[in-house]
Design a protein that fits this description.
259 residues; two-stranded antiparallel sheet; mainly alpha; elongated
């Protein structure tokens, strides 16, 4: 009996730890994301100071070491859940252009998801999975997510990652704590994040193509309307992506009701 009570207490502490982690990963990224956008020019200048061999692609000259530092910082910040992925993708497109910013951002996303997976597994162990399994509907979803082998897990992770309204760090927590295997989880993350990352990098690269140092300068030179139009276009495109992904996801997850 004491052993059961001890296990229950440990499980309870891990659930509390997972909840606190989830709250932090919801609250912190939006606040720091605004800072990245506001300081995008200064951050770009800092990244370029790392120098290295110049890579010329798509009309943009990029120092290799600066690109590697960006991908590495991106990886750590994603994994620790302290910065939003949209801001980091915009930074990559603005500083390095579409053709280099997009793959560097995706490397950062994938590495960050691995770090997040490890953190979540360390914090939650199997406590979240056991809690989910007490609820028939959620348990059915979890086992459909895990029990069908590599390709089904890969497909579900891909569909979950596509909508831009799915918080990256919180999704890391949900999938790793639910027991997702690392290999299909990473592969699905890379593929699923590609459309929204490419779109964000593309918009940022197009805005920076006129030589503006930062977004404030761009707005002074071009006015507020291009920003408004760009945001509306992003929302429309992302909404379409989310609708397609959510409809596909509904087709592969169980529809049974919770008892």
């Amino acid at each position: 009996m004491e052993n059961q009570g001890s296990v229950s207490a440990i499980e309870r502490r891990r659930l509390i730890g997972s909840t606190i982690l989830g709250i932090c990963w919801v609250a912190l990224p939006p606040l720091l994301g605004f800072w990245i956008i506001a300081e995008i020019g200064a951050i770009g200048d800092w990244l370029r100071t790392f120098g290295g061999p110049e890579i010329v692609l798509g009309g943009t000259s990029t120092p290799l070491y600066g690109l590697l530092v960006y991908a590495g910082c991106f990886m750590v910040c994603c994994g620790l859940g302290i910065l939003p992925t949209y801001a980091q993708a915009i930074l990559g497109g603005w500083v390095f252009g579409f053709w280099l910013g997009t793959p560097a951002a995706l490397i950062g996303f994938t590495g960050g998801s691995a770090i997040g997976w490890l953190i979540c597994r360390a914090v939650s162990k199997d406590s979240v999975a056991r809690w989910i399994d007490r609820k028939p509907r959620w348990s059915a979803v979890r086992h459909a997510f895990l029990a069908e082998g590599f390709w089904k897990t890969f497909g579900i992770v891909t569909l979950i990652r596509i909508p831009p309204n799915s918080p990256f760090s919180l999704t890391n927590l949900a999938m790793s704590a639910g027991g997702a295997k690392l290999t299909p989880y990473l592969a699905g993350t890379f593929v699923g994040m590609t459309p929204r990352t490419a779109i964000a990098c593309g918009f940022a690269a197009a805005a920076a193509a006129d030589g503006s140092k930062d977004i404030q300068t761009f707005m002074q030179d071009k006015g507020i309307m291009p920003i408004i139009i760009g945001v509306i276009a992003l929302v429309v495109v992302f909404s379409v992506l989310a609708k397609i992904a959510n409809r596909a996801l509904a087709g592969v997850l169980p529809s049974s009701q919770e008892a």
